[in-house]
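Page 42, continued from yesterday. The earlier attempt failed because a stray header line got pasted into the input along with the sequence. Redoing it now with the clean sequence only.
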Amino acid sequence: MKKNSFVTGTFIATASVILVKILGMLYVVPFYIIVGSKGGALYSYGYNIYLIFLSISSAGIPSAMSKLISEYNATGKIEAKTRAYKLSRKFISYFSFATFILLFVFAEELGSLILGDLQGGNTITDVAFVIRCVSFAVLIVPHLSVAKGYLQGHEYVGPSSTANLIEQVVRIFVILAGSYLCYKVLNGSLTLTIGIAVSGAFFGGLVAYYYLKRQINKNKKVLDLDKKLEKDDISNKEIIKKIAIYAVPAIVLNLISSVYSFTDMVIILRVLDHLGYSAHDVEFITSVISTWGSKICMIVNSIAMGMTVTLIPSIVSAHATSNWKDLNEKLNKSLQIIIYVSLPMTIGLSILATPVWTVFYNINHYGGDILKIMVFNALVGNISLVVSTALQSCNKFKAVYLTNIFGCLFNAALDMPLMIICNHFGIGDYYGAVLASFIGYSVSIYVGLKAFNGVHKINYKDTFITVFKTLVPALVMTAVLLVLNNFLPFNVYSRTSSVKLIVVDAVIGAFIYIGLSIWMKIPQHIFGTKEINKIIKKLTFGKFQIKES
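This time it went through. C-alpha coordinates are written below.
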Protein backbone atom coordinates (compact mmCIF):
# COMPACT_ATOMS: atom_id res chain seq x y z
CA MET A 1 0.00 0.00 0.00
CA LYS A 2 1.08 3.57 -0.71
CA LYS A 3 0.47 6.61 1.45
CA ASN A 4 -1.25 9.55 -0.21
CA SER A 5 -0.60 13.29 0.01
CA PHE A 6 -3.39 15.59 1.16
CA VAL A 7 -4.38 16.72 -2.33
CA THR A 8 -3.88 13.28 -3.93
CA GLY A 9 -5.66 11.53 -1.09
CA THR A 10 -8.52 14.00 -1.31
CA PHE A 11 -8.77 13.41 -5.07
CA ILE A 12 -8.77 9.58 -4.69
CA ALA A 13 -11.25 9.57 -1.82
CA THR A 14 -13.53 12.11 -3.46
CA ALA A 15 -13.45 10.30 -6.80
CA SER A 16 -14.29 7.04 -5.03
CA VAL A 17 -17.15 8.55 -3.07
CA ILE A 18 -18.52 10.23 -6.20
CA LEU A 19 -18.43 6.91 -8.06
CA VAL A 20 -20.14 5.20 -5.13
CA LYS A 21 -22.83 7.86 -5.04
CA ILE A 22 -23.32 7.72 -8.80
CA LEU A 23 -23.94 4.00 -8.46
CA GLY A 24 -26.23 4.78 -5.53
CA MET A 25 -28.19 7.15 -7.72
CA LEU A 26 -28.39 4.97 -10.79
CA TYR A 27 -29.90 1.97 -9.03
CA VAL A 28 -32.93 3.98 -7.91
CA VAL A 29 -34.19 4.17 -11.50
CA PRO A 30 -34.90 0.43 -11.92
CA PHE A 31 -35.66 0.00 -8.21
CA TYR A 32 -38.32 2.70 -8.27
CA ILE A 33 -39.82 1.18 -11.41
CA ILE A 34 -40.08 -2.17 -9.60
CA VAL A 35 -41.52 -1.04 -6.23
CA GLY A 36 -43.26 2.28 -7.01
CA SER A 37 -43.79 5.26 -4.69
CA LYS A 38 -45.39 3.19 -1.89
CA GLY A 39 -42.46 0.78 -1.84
CA GLY A 40 -40.06 3.74 -2.06
CA ALA A 41 -41.66 5.32 1.03
CA LEU A 42 -41.45 2.02 2.96
CA TYR A 43 -37.77 1.68 2.03
CA SER A 44 -37.07 5.22 3.29
CA TYR A 45 -38.73 4.51 6.66
CA GLY A 46 -36.63 1.42 7.30
CA TYR A 47 -33.36 2.87 6.03
CA ASN A 48 -33.64 6.13 8.00
CA ILE A 49 -34.20 4.19 11.22
CA TYR A 50 -31.21 1.99 10.36
CA LEU A 51 -28.97 5.06 10.00
CA ILE A 52 -29.85 6.19 13.55
CA PHE A 53 -28.99 2.84 15.07
CA LEU A 54 -25.88 2.51 12.89
CA SER A 55 -24.54 5.71 14.47
CA ILE A 56 -25.18 4.18 17.90
CA SER A 57 -23.62 0.82 17.09
CA SER A 58 -20.50 2.39 15.63
CA ALA A 59 -20.13 4.33 18.86
CA GLY A 60 -17.91 6.90 17.18
CA ILE A 61 -15.02 4.42 17.19
CA PRO A 62 -14.29 4.55 13.43
CA SER A 63 -13.59 8.29 13.47
CA ALA A 64 -11.76 7.87 16.78
CA MET A 65 -9.58 5.25 15.13
CA SER A 66 -8.59 7.55 12.30
CA LYS A 67 -7.60 10.32 14.72
CA LEU A 68 -5.86 8.07 17.26
CA ILE A 69 -3.81 6.15 14.68
CA SER A 70 -2.76 9.41 13.04
CA GLU A 71 -1.76 10.87 16.42
CA TYR A 72 0.23 7.81 17.54
CA ASN A 73 2.01 7.65 14.18
CA ALA A 74 2.94 11.33 14.45
CA THR A 75 4.30 10.84 17.99
CA GLY A 76 6.03 7.48 17.36
CA LYS A 77 3.77 5.37 19.62
CA ILE A 78 3.75 2.34 17.30
CA GLU A 79 2.94 -0.40 19.83
CA ALA A 80 0.15 1.64 21.41
CA LYS A 81 -1.28 2.17 17.93
CA THR A 82 -1.64 -1.60 17.42
CA ARG A 83 -3.27 -2.10 20.82
CA ALA A 84 -5.72 0.71 20.08
CA TYR A 85 -6.83 -1.10 16.92
CA LYS A 86 -7.39 -4.40 18.76
CA LEU A 87 -9.29 -2.73 21.61
CA SER A 88 -11.52 -0.87 19.13
CA ARG A 89 -12.45 -4.13 17.42
CA LYS A 90 -13.41 -5.65 20.75
CA PHE A 91 -15.60 -2.74 21.83
CA ILE A 92 -17.35 -2.43 18.49
CA SER A 93 -18.47 -6.06 18.79
CA TYR A 94 -20.31 -5.31 22.05
CA PHE A 95 -21.89 -2.09 20.80
CA SER A 96 -23.07 -3.48 17.49
CA PHE A 97 -24.68 -6.58 19.05
CA ALA A 98 -26.49 -4.54 21.72
CA THR A 99 -27.78 -2.13 19.08
CA PHE A 100 -29.00 -4.97 16.88
CA ILE A 101 -31.06 -6.37 19.76
CA LEU A 102 -32.65 -2.98 20.44
CA LEU A 103 -33.52 -2.41 16.80
CA PHE A 104 -34.97 -5.89 16.31
CA VAL A 105 -37.02 -6.02 19.53
CA PHE A 106 -38.53 -2.51 19.32
CA ALA A 107 -39.30 -2.50 15.58
CA GLU A 108 -43.08 -2.26 16.13
CA GLU A 109 -42.73 0.74 18.44
CA LEU A 110 -40.49 2.49 15.95
CA GLY A 111 -42.98 1.84 13.15
CA SER A 112 -45.74 3.36 15.25
CA LEU A 113 -43.57 6.38 16.02
CA ILE A 114 -43.02 6.99 12.29
CA LEU A 115 -46.55 6.61 10.95
CA GLY A 116 -48.61 7.87 13.87
CA ASP A 117 -52.28 8.01 12.83
CA LEU A 118 -51.65 8.07 9.08
CA GLN A 119 -54.17 5.84 7.29
CA GLY A 120 -54.34 4.55 3.74
CA GLY A 121 -50.64 3.92 3.09
CA ASN A 122 -48.04 1.56 4.55
CA THR A 123 -48.91 -0.06 7.90
CA ILE A 124 -46.97 -0.25 11.18
CA THR A 125 -46.53 -4.00 10.63
CA ASP A 126 -44.97 -3.33 7.21
CA VAL A 127 -42.52 -0.84 8.66
CA ALA A 128 -41.60 -3.14 11.57
CA PHE A 129 -40.80 -6.04 9.22
CA VAL A 130 -38.49 -3.87 7.10
CA ILE A 131 -36.75 -2.52 10.21
CA ARG A 132 -36.05 -6.07 11.43
CA CYS A 133 -34.63 -7.03 8.02
CA VAL A 134 -32.21 -4.09 7.96
CA SER A 135 -31.20 -4.55 11.61
CA PHE A 136 -28.77 -7.38 10.68
CA ALA A 137 -26.56 -4.84 8.88
CA VAL A 138 -25.77 -3.31 12.26
CA LEU A 139 -23.84 -6.49 13.14
CA ILE A 140 -21.26 -6.08 10.36
CA VAL A 141 -21.10 -2.48 9.03
CA PRO A 142 -19.52 -1.01 12.23
CA HIS A 143 -16.66 -3.56 11.93
CA LEU A 144 -16.14 -2.41 8.34
CA SER A 145 -16.01 1.21 9.53
CA VAL A 146 -13.33 0.41 12.12
CA ALA A 147 -11.14 -1.20 9.46
CA LYS A 148 -11.60 1.86 7.23
CA GLY A 149 -10.74 4.21 10.08
CA TYR A 150 -7.60 2.20 10.87
CA LEU A 151 -6.30 2.45 7.30
CA GLN A 152 -7.32 6.09 6.90
CA GLY A 153 -5.40 6.94 10.05
CA HIS A 154 -2.30 5.59 8.26
CA GLU A 155 -3.22 7.78 5.25
CA TYR A 156 -3.88 4.71 3.07
CA VAL A 157 -6.91 5.89 1.15
CA GLY A 158 -6.94 3.37 -1.72
CA PRO A 159 -8.15 0.19 0.11
CA SER A 160 -10.92 2.07 1.92
CA SER A 161 -12.06 3.61 -1.36
CA THR A 162 -12.11 0.18 -3.01
CA ALA A 163 -14.07 -1.24 -0.07
CA ASN A 164 -16.66 1.51 -0.52
CA LEU A 165 -17.09 0.49 -4.15
CA ILE A 166 -17.38 -3.21 -3.29
CA GLU A 167 -19.94 -2.50 -0.58
CA GLN A 168 -22.07 -0.40 -2.92
CA VAL A 169 -21.92 -2.83 -5.86
CA VAL A 170 -22.95 -5.81 -3.72
CA ARG A 171 -25.68 -3.82 -1.98
CA ILE A 172 -27.13 -2.63 -5.29
CA PHE A 173 -27.02 -6.16 -6.72
CA VAL A 174 -29.02 -7.50 -3.78
CA ILE A 175 -31.49 -4.60 -3.99
CA LEU A 176 -32.19 -4.96 -7.71
CA ALA A 177 -31.89 -8.71 -8.18
CA GLY A 178 -33.70 -9.48 -4.92
CA SER A 179 -36.58 -7.06 -5.44
CA TYR A 180 -37.10 -8.06 -9.08
CA LEU A 181 -37.12 -11.79 -8.35
CA CYS A 182 -39.39 -11.41 -5.34
CA TYR A 183 -41.91 -8.92 -6.72
CA LYS A 184 -41.93 -9.52 -10.47
CA VAL A 185 -40.98 -13.20 -10.84
CA LEU A 186 -42.24 -14.89 -7.64
CA ASN A 187 -45.14 -12.45 -7.04
CA GLY A 188 -44.08 -11.82 -3.44
CA SER A 189 -45.59 -9.07 -1.31
CA LEU A 190 -44.32 -5.49 -1.49
CA THR A 191 -43.33 -5.66 2.18
CA LEU A 192 -41.19 -8.78 1.65
CA THR A 193 -39.65 -7.18 -1.43
CA ILE A 194 -38.53 -4.10 0.52
CA GLY A 195 -37.28 -6.34 3.34
CA ILE A 196 -35.00 -8.14 0.86
CA ALA A 197 -33.89 -4.81 -0.61
CA VAL A 198 -32.78 -3.30 2.72
CA SER A 199 -30.87 -6.51 3.57
CA GLY A 200 -28.45 -5.45 0.81
CA ALA A 201 -26.76 -3.27 3.45
CA PHE A 202 -25.77 -6.43 5.38
CA PHE A 203 -24.40 -8.37 2.40
CA GLY A 204 -22.55 -5.34 1.00
CA GLY A 205 -20.92 -4.69 4.37
CA LEU A 206 -19.96 -8.36 4.78
CA VAL A 207 -18.15 -8.66 1.43
CA ALA A 208 -16.39 -5.28 1.84
CA TYR A 209 -15.25 -6.18 5.36
CA TYR A 210 -13.79 -9.48 4.10
CA TYR A 211 -11.84 -7.52 1.45
CA LEU A 212 -10.42 -5.01 3.96
CA LYS A 213 -9.44 -7.73 6.42
CA ARG A 214 -7.48 -9.44 3.64
CA GLN A 215 -5.77 -6.15 2.77
CA ILE A 216 -4.79 -5.56 6.40
CA ASN A 217 -3.47 -9.14 6.77
CA LYS A 218 -1.47 -8.86 3.52
CA ASN A 219 0.13 -5.58 4.64
CA LYS A 220 0.95 -6.31 8.27
CA LYS A 221 4.53 -5.17 7.73
CA VAL A 222 3.74 -1.62 6.56
CA LEU A 223 1.02 -1.35 9.22
CA ASP A 224 3.47 -2.49 11.95
CA LEU A 225 1.20 -5.40 12.88
CA ASP A 226 3.93 -8.03 12.48
CA LYS A 227 6.41 -6.32 14.77
CA LYS A 228 7.08 -7.50 18.30
CA LEU A 229 7.57 -4.19 20.02
CA GLU A 230 8.21 -3.27 23.59
CA LYS A 231 5.10 -1.96 25.28
CA ASP A 232 4.82 1.82 25.05
CA ASP A 233 4.41 3.89 28.18
CA ILE A 234 0.70 4.11 27.42
CA SER A 235 -1.63 1.79 29.34
CA ASN A 236 -4.79 0.14 28.01
CA LYS A 237 -6.72 2.39 30.37
CA GLU A 238 -5.20 5.48 28.75
CA ILE A 239 -5.96 4.16 25.25
CA ILE A 240 -9.56 3.36 26.19
CA LYS A 241 -9.89 6.80 27.75
CA LYS A 242 -8.55 8.44 24.59
CA ILE A 243 -10.85 6.36 22.37
CA ALA A 244 -13.75 7.46 24.57
CA ILE A 245 -12.66 11.12 24.38
CA TYR A 246 -12.52 10.94 20.59
CA ALA A 247 -15.58 8.70 20.21
CA VAL A 248 -18.09 10.46 22.50
CA PRO A 249 -18.28 13.62 20.38
CA ALA A 250 -18.84 11.46 17.29
CA ILE A 251 -21.57 9.54 19.11
CA VAL A 252 -23.30 12.75 20.12
CA LEU A 253 -22.93 14.30 16.68
CA ASN A 254 -24.15 11.21 14.85
CA LEU A 255 -27.09 10.91 17.20
CA ILE A 256 -27.97 14.59 16.85
CA SER A 257 -27.82 14.33 13.06
CA SER A 258 -29.62 10.99 12.79
CA VAL A 259 -32.29 11.78 15.38
CA TYR A 260 -32.85 15.16 13.78
CA SER A 261 -33.27 13.55 10.32
CA PHE A 262 -35.78 11.14 11.80
CA THR A 263 -37.60 13.91 13.68
CA ASP A 264 -37.63 16.07 10.56
CA MET A 265 -39.21 13.21 8.59
CA VAL A 266 -41.88 12.68 11.26
CA ILE A 267 -42.67 16.43 11.56
CA ILE A 268 -43.05 16.82 7.79
CA LEU A 269 -45.30 13.74 7.64
CA ARG A 270 -47.49 15.02 10.49
CA VAL A 271 -47.80 18.59 9.14
CA LEU A 272 -48.67 17.44 5.61
CA ASP A 273 -51.28 15.07 7.03
CA HIS A 274 -52.70 17.94 9.11
CA LEU A 275 -52.83 20.22 6.07
CA GLY A 276 -55.10 17.76 4.26
CA TYR A 277 -52.80 15.97 1.80
CA SER A 278 -53.78 12.44 0.78
CA ALA A 279 -51.90 9.52 2.38
CA HIS A 280 -50.19 8.85 -0.97
CA ASP A 281 -48.98 12.46 -1.32
CA VAL A 282 -47.93 12.63 2.35
CA GLU A 283 -45.73 9.54 2.03
CA PHE A 284 -44.39 10.59 -1.36
CA ILE A 285 -43.40 14.14 -0.38
CA THR A 286 -41.90 12.95 2.91
CA SER A 287 -39.85 10.27 1.18
CA VAL A 288 -38.66 12.78 -1.45
CA ILE A 289 -37.26 15.10 1.24
CA SER A 290 -35.93 12.37 3.56
CA THR A 291 -34.58 9.88 1.01
CA TRP A 292 -35.15 10.06 -2.74
CA GLY A 293 -34.33 13.72 -3.30
CA SER A 294 -31.30 13.22 -1.07
CA LYS A 295 -30.17 10.33 -3.28
CA ILE A 296 -29.79 12.72 -6.20
CA CYS A 297 -28.23 15.42 -4.02
CA MET A 298 -25.62 12.94 -2.78
CA ILE A 299 -23.51 13.52 -5.87
CA VAL A 300 -22.93 17.01 -4.45
CA ASN A 301 -22.58 15.77 -0.84
CA SER A 302 -19.99 13.19 -1.89
CA ILE A 303 -17.42 15.96 -2.38
CA ALA A 304 -17.37 16.71 1.35
CA MET A 305 -17.53 13.05 2.33
CA GLY A 306 -14.49 12.24 0.23
CA MET A 307 -12.60 15.24 1.55
CA THR A 308 -13.13 14.42 5.23
CA VAL A 309 -11.30 11.11 4.75
CA THR A 310 -8.01 12.96 4.23
CA LEU A 311 -8.96 16.07 6.19
CA ILE A 312 -9.16 14.28 9.55
CA PRO A 313 -5.59 12.90 9.77
CA SER A 314 -4.20 16.05 8.15
CA ILE A 315 -5.87 18.38 10.66
CA VAL A 316 -5.06 16.06 13.58
CA SER A 317 -1.39 16.03 12.62
CA ALA A 318 -1.25 19.84 12.33
CA HIS A 319 -3.04 20.26 15.67
CA ALA A 320 -0.89 17.63 17.47
CA THR A 321 2.30 19.43 16.42
CA SER A 322 0.82 22.93 17.03
CA ASN A 323 1.45 23.86 13.40
CA TRP A 324 -1.20 26.61 13.27
CA LYS A 325 -0.01 27.89 9.89
CA ASP A 326 -0.58 24.45 8.34
CA LEU A 327 -3.93 24.17 10.12
CA ASN A 328 -5.00 27.53 8.71
CA GLU A 329 -3.93 26.51 5.21
CA LYS A 330 -5.63 23.08 5.32
CA LEU A 331 -8.93 24.48 6.59
CA ASN A 332 -9.03 27.31 4.06
CA LYS A 333 -8.03 25.04 1.17
CA SER A 334 -10.74 22.57 2.18
CA LEU A 335 -13.39 25.27 2.20
CA GLN A 336 -12.22 26.60 -1.15
CA ILE A 337 -12.19 23.14 -2.78
CA ILE A 338 -15.65 22.39 -1.41
CA ILE A 339 -17.18 25.58 -2.74
CA TYR A 340 -15.33 25.56 -6.07
CA VAL A 341 -16.46 22.02 -6.91
CA SER A 342 -19.89 22.00 -5.24
CA LEU A 343 -21.22 25.34 -6.51
CA PRO A 344 -21.52 24.57 -10.25
CA MET A 345 -22.90 21.10 -9.50
CA THR A 346 -25.55 22.63 -7.23
CA ILE A 347 -26.59 25.28 -9.73
CA GLY A 348 -26.64 22.82 -12.61
CA LEU A 349 -28.76 20.33 -10.69
CA SER A 350 -31.20 23.06 -9.69
CA ILE A 351 -31.61 24.22 -13.30
CA LEU A 352 -32.10 20.62 -14.44
CA ALA A 353 -34.25 19.50 -11.47
CA THR A 354 -37.33 18.51 -13.48
CA PRO A 355 -35.54 16.54 -16.24
CA VAL A 356 -33.28 14.88 -13.66
CA TRP A 357 -36.30 13.80 -11.61
CA THR A 358 -37.98 12.52 -14.78
CA VAL A 359 -34.92 10.40 -15.60
CA PHE A 360 -34.65 8.90 -12.14
CA TYR A 361 -38.24 8.52 -10.98
CA ASN A 362 -40.48 9.48 -13.90
CA ILE A 363 -42.40 12.72 -13.96
CA ASN A 364 -43.98 13.98 -10.77
CA HIS A 365 -45.02 17.53 -9.95
CA TYR A 366 -43.72 17.43 -6.39
CA GLY A 367 -40.40 15.71 -7.12
CA GLY A 368 -38.84 18.22 -9.53
CA ASP A 369 -40.27 21.15 -7.58
CA ILE A 370 -38.70 20.02 -4.32
CA LEU A 371 -35.35 19.03 -5.86
CA LYS A 372 -34.98 22.49 -7.44
CA ILE A 373 -34.44 24.12 -4.03
CA MET A 374 -33.40 21.09 -2.00
CA VAL A 375 -30.09 20.79 -3.82
CA PHE A 376 -28.87 24.05 -2.21
CA ASN A 377 -29.04 22.28 1.14
CA ALA A 378 -26.40 19.90 -0.23
CA LEU A 379 -24.06 22.85 -0.85
CA VAL A 380 -24.35 24.36 2.65
CA GLY A 381 -24.37 20.83 4.10
CA ASN A 382 -20.96 20.21 2.50
CA ILE A 383 -19.49 23.35 4.05
CA SER A 384 -21.03 22.51 7.43
CA LEU A 385 -19.58 18.97 7.35
CA VAL A 386 -16.06 20.20 6.60
CA VAL A 387 -16.19 22.82 9.38
CA SER A 388 -17.60 20.32 11.88
CA THR A 389 -15.02 17.66 10.94
CA ALA A 390 -12.16 20.13 11.31
CA LEU A 391 -13.39 21.24 14.76
CA GLN A 392 -13.75 17.64 15.87
CA SER A 393 -10.25 16.80 14.63
CA CYS A 394 -8.89 19.63 16.79
CA ASN A 395 -10.75 18.32 19.85
CA LYS A 396 -12.96 21.42 19.96
CA PHE A 397 -15.82 19.30 21.25
CA LYS A 398 -17.84 22.10 22.84
CA ALA A 399 -17.77 24.03 19.58
CA VAL A 400 -18.73 20.90 17.64
CA TYR A 401 -21.71 20.31 19.92
CA LEU A 402 -22.85 23.92 19.68
CA THR A 403 -22.43 23.95 15.90
CA ASN A 404 -24.63 20.92 15.36
CA ILE A 405 -27.13 21.56 18.16
CA PHE A 406 -27.80 25.14 17.06
CA GLY A 407 -28.22 24.02 13.45
CA CYS A 408 -30.62 21.19 14.32
CA LEU A 409 -32.63 23.33 16.78
CA PHE A 410 -33.11 26.09 14.22
CA ASN A 411 -34.12 23.50 11.63
CA ALA A 412 -36.59 21.66 13.86
CA ALA A 413 -38.06 24.87 15.29
CA LEU A 414 -38.64 26.39 11.84
CA ASP A 415 -40.07 23.28 10.11
CA MET A 416 -43.70 23.67 11.11
CA PRO A 417 -44.04 27.49 11.09
CA LEU A 418 -42.34 27.85 7.69
CA MET A 419 -44.51 25.07 6.21
CA ILE A 420 -47.66 26.77 7.55
CA ILE A 421 -46.50 30.18 6.25
CA CYS A 422 -45.85 28.72 2.80
CA ASN A 423 -49.30 27.12 2.87
CA HIS A 424 -50.88 30.46 3.84
CA PHE A 425 -49.33 32.23 0.85
CA GLY A 426 -50.19 29.44 -1.57
CA ILE A 427 -46.59 28.29 -1.95
CA GLY A 428 -45.73 24.60 -1.76
CA ASP A 429 -45.79 23.63 1.93
CA TYR A 430 -42.67 21.49 1.44
CA TYR A 431 -40.67 24.62 0.56
CA GLY A 432 -40.89 25.55 4.24
CA ALA A 433 -39.27 22.28 5.33
CA VAL A 434 -36.46 22.65 2.79
CA LEU A 435 -35.86 26.30 3.75
CA ALA A 436 -35.70 25.34 7.44
CA SER A 437 -32.88 22.89 6.65
CA PHE A 438 -30.98 25.55 4.69
CA ILE A 439 -31.19 27.99 7.62
CA GLY A 440 -30.11 25.25 10.03
CA TYR A 441 -26.98 24.45 7.98
CA SER A 442 -26.15 28.15 7.62
CA VAL A 443 -26.35 28.66 11.39
CA SER A 444 -24.04 25.65 11.89
CA ILE A 445 -21.46 27.09 9.48
CA TYR A 446 -21.52 30.50 11.16
CA VAL A 447 -21.11 29.09 14.68
CA GLY A 448 -18.34 26.72 13.55
CA LEU A 449 -16.27 29.35 11.73
CA LYS A 450 -16.61 31.77 14.64
CA ALA A 451 -15.38 29.06 17.01
CA PHE A 452 -12.26 28.43 14.91
CA ASN A 453 -11.55 32.10 14.56
CA GLY A 454 -11.90 32.59 18.29
CA VAL A 455 -9.47 29.81 19.27
CA HIS A 456 -6.82 29.74 16.54
CA LYS A 457 -7.42 33.12 14.88
CA ILE A 458 -8.04 31.50 11.51
CA ASN A 459 -7.99 34.05 8.73
CA TYR A 460 -10.72 33.47 6.13
CA LYS A 461 -9.83 36.45 3.94
CA ASP A 462 -8.31 34.32 1.17
CA THR A 463 -11.34 32.00 1.18
CA PHE A 464 -13.82 34.89 0.95
CA ILE A 465 -11.90 36.40 -1.98
CA THR A 466 -11.74 33.02 -3.73
CA VAL A 467 -15.48 32.44 -3.20
CA PHE A 468 -16.38 35.84 -4.69
CA LYS A 469 -14.16 35.09 -7.69
CA THR A 470 -15.82 31.68 -8.08
CA LEU A 471 -19.23 33.34 -8.27
CA VAL A 472 -18.26 34.99 -11.57
CA PRO A 473 -17.93 31.81 -13.72
CA ALA A 474 -20.85 30.26 -11.79
CA LEU A 475 -23.18 33.17 -12.61
CA VAL A 476 -22.05 33.29 -16.24
CA MET A 477 -22.73 29.56 -16.53
CA THR A 478 -26.17 30.01 -14.95
CA ALA A 479 -27.17 32.85 -17.29
CA VAL A 480 -26.06 30.97 -20.40
CA LEU A 481 -27.89 27.76 -19.43
CA LEU A 482 -31.13 29.54 -18.49
CA VAL A 483 -31.19 31.39 -21.82
CA LEU A 484 -30.13 28.33 -23.77
CA ASN A 485 -32.81 26.08 -22.24
CA ASN A 486 -35.53 28.41 -23.51
CA PHE A 487 -34.53 27.62 -27.07
CA LEU A 488 -33.64 23.93 -26.84
CA PRO A 489 -36.45 21.72 -28.21
CA PHE A 490 -36.35 19.12 -25.40
CA ASN A 491 -39.41 17.73 -23.60
CA VAL A 492 -38.57 17.56 -19.85
CA TYR A 493 -41.41 15.08 -19.31
CA SER A 494 -39.77 12.44 -21.50
CA ARG A 495 -36.87 10.31 -20.19
CA THR A 496 -35.05 10.20 -23.52
CA SER A 497 -35.44 13.91 -24.15
CA SER A 498 -34.49 14.74 -20.54
CA VAL A 499 -31.25 12.76 -20.85
CA LYS A 500 -30.34 14.73 -23.99
CA LEU A 501 -30.99 18.04 -22.23
CA ILE A 502 -28.92 16.99 -19.19
CA VAL A 503 -25.96 15.96 -21.38
CA VAL A 504 -26.07 19.18 -23.43
CA ASP A 505 -26.33 21.41 -20.34
CA ALA A 506 -23.63 19.48 -18.46
CA VAL A 507 -21.11 19.72 -21.30
CA ILE A 508 -21.77 23.39 -22.03
CA GLY A 509 -21.95 24.30 -18.35
CA ALA A 510 -18.70 22.49 -17.48
CA PHE A 511 -16.91 24.08 -20.46
CA ILE A 512 -17.98 27.59 -19.43
CA TYR A 513 -17.29 27.17 -15.70
CA ILE A 514 -13.95 25.35 -15.95
CA GLY A 515 -12.69 27.41 -18.89
CA LEU A 516 -13.57 30.77 -17.35
CA SER A 517 -12.29 29.80 -13.89
CA ILE A 518 -8.95 28.60 -15.34
CA TRP A 519 -8.70 31.89 -17.27
CA MET A 520 -9.28 33.68 -13.93
CA LYS A 521 -6.63 31.35 -12.35
CA ILE A 522 -9.03 30.17 -9.64
CA PRO A 523 -8.18 26.41 -9.69
CA GLN A 524 -4.46 27.24 -9.99
CA HIS A 525 -4.74 29.23 -6.78
CA ILE A 526 -6.76 26.57 -4.93
CA PHE A 527 -5.00 23.37 -6.02
CA GLY A 528 -1.67 24.68 -7.25
CA THR A 529 -0.55 24.85 -10.88
CA LYS A 530 1.55 21.67 -10.60
CA GLU A 531 -1.38 19.61 -9.27
CA ILE A 532 -3.69 20.96 -12.00
CA ASN A 533 -1.11 20.07 -14.66
CA LYS A 534 -0.80 16.52 -13.27
CA ILE A 535 -4.56 16.04 -13.71
CA ILE A 536 -4.59 17.65 -17.18
CA LYS A 537 -1.60 15.52 -18.24
CA LYS A 538 -3.43 12.31 -17.29
CA LEU A 539 -6.66 13.40 -18.96
CA THR A 540 -5.00 14.59 -22.20
CA PHE A 541 -2.10 12.11 -22.32
CA GLY A 542 0.40 14.89 -21.74
CA LYS A 543 -0.65 17.03 -24.71
CA PHE A 544 -1.64 20.14 -22.72
CA GLN A 545 -0.57 21.97 -19.61
CA ILE A 546 -1.06 25.32 -17.91
CA LYS A 547 1.88 27.67 -17.69
CA GLU A 548 2.92 28.64 -14.18
CA SER A 549 2.35 32.28 -13.40
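Notes: The mean pLDDT is 81.
Reminder to self: strip header lines before submitting.
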